[in-house]
Amino acid sequence: MSGKNLRWSALLFAILWCAVVAYLWSPKHYWPDADGYLLHVTEGRWVAHPPGYALFVMLGRLFHALGFLPYFAVQLASLSLTAAGLCVLYRLMREMLSPLYAQALTIAAAFSWLTLLNVQTGTSHASDLFTVSLLLLAAVKLPGSRASAWGDDLFFATSLFLCAGFRLTTFIMMAPLCLLMAWNNRTRASFWVSCFLALVAVALWQLWVIGQSGGYAAYSAAAAAMNADNHPSSLLLSGLTHTTALNILRALLWAGVGTFAFSVVAGASWCWPIPTFARRAFFYGLAATVGPLFGVIFYLCTHPGYVVSVIPGTALVAASLAATSRPSFPWRAFGASVIGVLCMFLFMKPFMPSPTKWQAVSNGILLQYSATCARAATFNTTSRWLRLAGLESEIPDHRVMDLQQEDEWREYFRRVDPERDLQ
């Protein structure tokens, strides 16, 4: 395909993506935790939820300072970070592939179920697509030699800081990638100096966030309360139970559906040898996929936002495998997977009502994460779906208390209704 035709196709898909995003937009919050971002932008305070998302809140405040209402400001923060993430992801794909194949994988990421669900929810999880893509782009560009490369090394250090600034949890889950990169670049002094500067900047930044959160005592108390709330659902904290097994199922299901098109490309290219220039990138992508996926499996995964961070790594794995000179790109299967998952996202609906336990659980795990529910701002925990179905006896004891707290939270935000700002 000629360069002119590629530009026209990119414009066409960009318009289509914008149309889908506009279709998904809702004047109400979809996820309950998005209300917290709105409050912090509106009231000028910081997220007390450790470890904080200071750069995301700052971006929301910037849009608010430009004259946008708080709800729009938070939505624009998610939208702008997603758009920036797709641009960076395309540059990452171009390191491995020709423009045509790079554009195809970027389109798959843009229309991924995970991306479309996060782009309009007003949540800091949308920043993961940008920061992880940027981190991988910086990683791929590093020379891996002894000769100093200050420009590339400082670019990587800046990417590390941005990753920590937007979501420190994502930065922590990138530890396998960072360790692999440290080994591959161990002989270059400029790399170690740049990493040291990045880690110092992250530490100073986090100290500032702690100060803005009310000091170390308040920050520690909030961290302890968060761990206590998450304890029953965390494999790391509670071991293997029915609840933690459900957490594992959710993470694997959402990651599998959200990155299905990349898996198709990787599966079709697996039998061919990886080109020499793409081998390091393949292992970087693998590390950037395994790290966050294991992180959410072992600690917490309550909604698909937690696994957005696997998209760039999975895309890089697929691109590295498809970089072979042999014509092995599976266009038909790839197109069918992108369109199939997109149709599932656009047209699936929860069971209303849900008279059986498994219908209620299906609503909570998968069916409510659809375009229909996103537009209507219909979000319930799995326990709430069970209660709505009249199956209170099936709700675990620790979730009964959570539901009481959730009721109080929902009642509070009925009084703090963003729809009033739109009237």
Describe the structure.
- The structure is a single chain.
- The chain is mainly α and 423 residues long.
- The chain has one domain (27-347).
- 72% of the residues lie in helices and 0% in strands.
- It contains 23 helices and no strands.
- It has helices at 3-24, 34-43, 54-65, 70-94, 99-110, 113-119, 127-141, 150-166, 168-173, 175-184, 189-212, 216-230, 235-238, 242-258, 260-269, 279-298, 310-322, 331-347, 357-367, 371-376, 382-388, 397-415, 419-422.
- The chain is globular, with a radius of gyration of 22 Å.
- Residues 418-423 have low confidence and may be disordered.
Helix and strand topology:
Layout: H1 3-24, H2 34-43, H3 54-65, H4 70-94, H5 99-110, H6 113-119, H7 127-141, H8 150-166, H9 168-173, H10 175-184, H11 189-212, H12 216-230, H13 235-238, H14 242-258, H15 260-269, H16 279-298, H17 310-322, H18 331-347, H19 357-367, H20 371-376, H21 382-388, H22 397-415, H23 419-422
Please tag this protein with its features:
single chain, 423 residues, disordered C terminus
Task: Give a summary of the structure in a few sentences.
The protein has 23 helices and no strands. The protein is mainly α. The N and C termini lie far apart (48 Å).
Number of strands: 0
Distance between the termini: 48 Å
Return the domain count: 1
Uncertain stretches: 418-423
Q: Provide the β-strand percentage band.
A: under 5%
Largest sheet: none
- In round numbers, the mean pLDDT is 84
Percent in helix: over 70%
Helical segment tally?
23
Strand and helix order: HHHHHHHHHHHHHHHHHHHHHHH
Protein structure class = mainly alpha
